[in-house]
Amino acid sequence: MTSRTHDDVDVEVLVIGAGVVGIYALYRAIEAGFTAQTLEAGDGVGGVWYWNRYPAARFDSESYTYGYLFSKELFDEWKWEEEFATQPEIERYLNHVVDRFELRRHIRTGQRVVSAIWNDGDNLWEVTTETGDTVRARWVISATGGLSVPHYPEIDGIDDFNGEGHHTGAWPHQQLDFTGKRVAIIGNGPSGAQILPAIVDIVEQVDLYQRTPTWTTPLNNAPMTDEKRAWLGDNFEHVVETLNTSPSGFLHPPAGKFSTDDTAEERQAFYEQIWKAPGFGKLTSNYYDMTTNRETNLEFCEFLAGKIRGIVTDPVTAERLIPKDHLFGAKRPPFIKDYYESFNKPNASLVALRETPIVRIDATGIETTEGHRDYDIIVYATGFDFGTGALTRMGIVGRDGLDLSVDWEDGPFDFGGFAMHRLPNFFFPGGPHGAGGGNYPRYSQDQVDWIADTLIHARADGFDRFEPTAEQEESWMTMVETLAPLSIFSAEHSHYYGANVVGKPKKFLLNPGGRAKLHEILREVTSTPDYNGALEATRERVSA
Ligand code: NAP
């Protein structure tokens, strides 16, 4: 495919971010023959898998379902070590992909974007980085991720601490030595819960500061075997087909039954089986009605509470670890080995913040209403400014003065979770309303594929602008608002509602219609006059 270059741009396609999605977007752009470049804030590639290098950070989607599917050779040659790979292997994999497909020369690291301004007259974006460089691009794909802006808790004195204080999402490159240290972990989402068992045996003391208990279940990881690798290779087409079409983007076999198909006794046996299922299988292989039938979910929660009580020897701690405010799956559940077991160690304790809130952090440690504890290290596992965080901090100004940071003050308004009216030629795959709660890269891949196909289509037909119409945006947002209460991730006290960031509007930030809805609107847009209409609008701008 030949590349049609324009004198007025530096590159046709500018990708922002070299994480899982950005690397794929760059690959698709280069493969399609566009001139393309990536600007990446970090000093290396990997996105969240570059920044989140805390102990035991790992996938909780199966490695081979999270990795890329566009190349059978890549799929065969990368020999994942475990079903759920750890961060170092993931970072190695992403670097391998970048080198294997000769993408590195198109990637500029250490380039944090501080402004992206639409030049309507010239029909291009002017994107400027912290270093003062400006790139003029026809199309921008901002693959800046939903979980890329760390959220620090609003605690008095947080800057006074003299020890080491680190957020999981901005972990230092020189690994911290936890040996013999007194450690506080604030937050018990997937990040905080992963760290606790990883360090409990080497630290002097570790206290987990928990605000809201989560339904944490075992990951059930295993080493990858040659047999499994061979099966995956032999069944590549089936694997790809399943991952590309299933609502969740996983390979987990469905239960094939409703809870009412089993007796009470059979259900308990089934829950035991689910407890042993890998990762998200506890949701995707569970009874069909697990997330829609409150009684069924309550019964499963009671089963899980029984597990917690059976594992944690101190009954007071066990009760504190049992969620009381949400059903299983209503918040994104962590999947972690030995999480509850860690609280049985003599040097680990749980601080229940609902009972004894933090008063302040000072030079030596943390003061709660119960007293003061000294620490060498405080881990902030307090999550991210989910969905909108990166985009609203990038100085994005679109058509007719649209300032994204202002326009989204009351919550994001978009089309398909990846584009927006008045942001011509700007795509943000993996953005707010992008993922539906399944395997994140699979949803983002759908979006990137559609974007890449649209750019190819535009080039072939001689158009150089795409912008969703106000009606398309309105219709998508109506779907989001209507279906949000029906989403499985319905707990409003969650980062999926932006509730973890003080002052952030409480708006649902996933795509509650799921993958089927995303595919439906992408098909609709492609096959209706709107698609060409949106491109048609600037036909006259094209320099042939
Ligand atoms: P998170 O799920 O948002 O959890 C943040 C934790 O910090 C929550 O327990 C929260 O309590 C607590 N917290 C926030 N502000 C606080 C405050 N001011 N005082 C005390 N506690 C506070 O964040 P995360 O664990 O980093 O996970 C974020 C997402 O990253 C996950 O949903 C997942 O998608 C991804 N992730 C995946 C993996 C994996 O296994 N692959 C690992 C880590 C992360 P409340 O619940 O009360 O707000």
Characterization of the model:
The protein has helices at 20-31, 48-51, 63-66, 72-77, 87-100, 190-199, 226-234, 236-245, 264-275, 281-284, 294-311, 315-321, 339-342, 389-392, 404-407, 440-461, 470-483, 514-527, 529-536, and strands at residues 11-16, 36-39, 107-108, 113-119, 124-129, 134-142, 164-167, 182-186, 205-210, 348-352, 358-361, 365-368, 371-374, 377-380, 396-397, 426-427. By secondary structure, it is of the alpha/beta class. The chain has a domain at 11-43 and 109-149 and 385-543: FAD/NAD(P)-binding domain (3-Layer(bba) Sandwich). The strands form three sheets. Strands 1, 2, 3, 4, 5, 6, 15 and 16 form an eight-stranded mixed beta sheet that branches. The chain has a five-stranded parallel beta sheet with strand order 7-14-8-9-10, covered by helices on one side. Helix 1 (20-31) runs parallel beside helix 16 (440-461). The two termini are 16 Å apart. The model is unreliable at 1-5 and 537-544 (pLDDT under 50). Bound molecules: NADP nicotinamide-adenine-dinucleotide phosphate. NADP nicotinamide-adenine-dinucleotide phosphate is lined by residues 59-60, 147, 153-154, 168, 186-192, 194, 209, 211-212, 332, 353, 381-384, 495, 500.
In short:
By secondary structure, the protein is of the alpha/beta class. It has 19 helices and 16 strands.
CATH T-level fold name of one domain = FAD/NAD(P)-binding domain
Bound molecules: NADP nicotinamide-adenine-dinucleotide phosphate
The CATH architecture of one domain is 3-Layer(bba) Sandwich
Largest sheet: 8 strands, mixed
Q: What global shape is seen? A: globular
Helical content, roughly?
A: 25-40%
Whole-angstrom Rg? 24 Å
Strand content: 5-15%
Structural class: alpha/beta
Distance between the termini: 16 Å
Mean pLDDT: 93
Q: Helix count, per DSSP?
A: 19
How many β-strand stretches? Answer: 16
Uncertain runs: 1-5, 537-544
CATH superfamily of one domain: FAD/NAD(P)-binding domain
Write down the CATH class of one domain: Alpha Beta
